[in-house]
Write a structure and sequence with these properties.
By secondary structure, the chain is an alpha/beta fold. The protein has helices at 3-24, 41-60, 80-93, 105-111, 113-118, 151-163, 178-193, 212-220, 232-245, 260-266, 268-271, 286-295, 305-325, 330-338, 384-388, and strands at residues 27-33, 69-75, 98-100, 121-124, 144-146, 170-175, 200-204, 225-229, 250-253, 276-278, 344-345, 350-351, 369-374, 377-380. Helix content is 45%, strand content 15%.
Amino acid sequence: MKLAKILKLTAIAATLSVAVTAYAQDIKLGFNGDLSASPSAQSGKAGVIGIEAAIADINAAGGVLGRKLTLVVRDDQSQPPKSIQNMSDLIDNEKVAAVFGPTNSGNALAWRHIPNQKKIISMGMIGSGTDITKPMSPGADNYMFRVSMVDREQVAALVTYASKLPTKKIGLMGETTGYGQGGLKDLEEILKLHGMSSLATEKFGVADTDMTSQLNKMKAAGVDTILLWAQGTPVGQLMRSMEKINYFPLVLTSWAADNITFYDAAGKNLAGKPIFMRTMVNPSTPAQKKLYERTVAKLAAPSAFPFVVHGYDAVLLVAEAIKQSGGTDGPKMKDALENLNTVVNGVMKSYNKPFSKTDHEALTASDLNFVRWNNDQLVSYSDSIIKSMSVNDYKR
């Protein structure tokens, strides 16, 4: 064989080898969220546990398009500048196909322009701020998706409940973070849709331990029901402050009250007073029980398990988008998520076309349950008002 022909065949073989190697490379996924700093950090840790469990199961079944999934984790320490830096690092340097997280809604609102500019999927599975999944401008392509609670959906249910109370002496309270202020905005808007308004509105810092001044103003205004948006620890501190002045209005609050940090801050006797919502009460299906048994030893508290489920299901949806689009091209993955042609059987539920061009939320009010603490357990809550409610009553 002539030397030139040998060299040519060698070059072709090398090219094919490189192509095969490139094809076989792992698909990187990223997580960017708080794992260490805020009252919600344990939710971030639980979400990562769920992501890792899904990746392990997918890889054990052969991966996606013959490629294994890997996870690159970044702790944003609940700091928006750090979260922005992490987002750029994961997309530009690590070349991830999608980013999960964040833990805190305010951080997502600080960097959501980045995945939209870079055309990379962001799949939220913890932060519940309403505006996270809204397009950057009307009609713009939107790369922000979510498998988690949504503040607007919780608020729609909680305000509906408040609207059916015999008295409607409502007060609003919220922490001064992006999460708290976004929730207050939703509360004010949906109260207005019901023809209602608050008698008083008060704010407090996420690290505050004494809210008696704000509560005294609520009491003076005649408030008997407080709609509250804050993370777990400050909600617990608010309950402590109520005890100090012996003022216990009905408290309807965000799902952050399911966090063990709330229970620890409030204490056993006060923790059972607020009513709130979550996607799961306790593991009930075989798939949920199996995942729970597999992961519970790693959790800060059993109450964090829904975040494991959301992280797990978020990976399944991204993996299906990669499979349907034939690769990790961002625009193709976005189009696939908006038009999934296969039912994805998740742990939370089966997802049948969960997203569309204009709706990037996989979970809605119909997936939520009213709950409260009973001793150290989360339990379903129901009363005559809840029994009379339906999703058709909700206004958004």
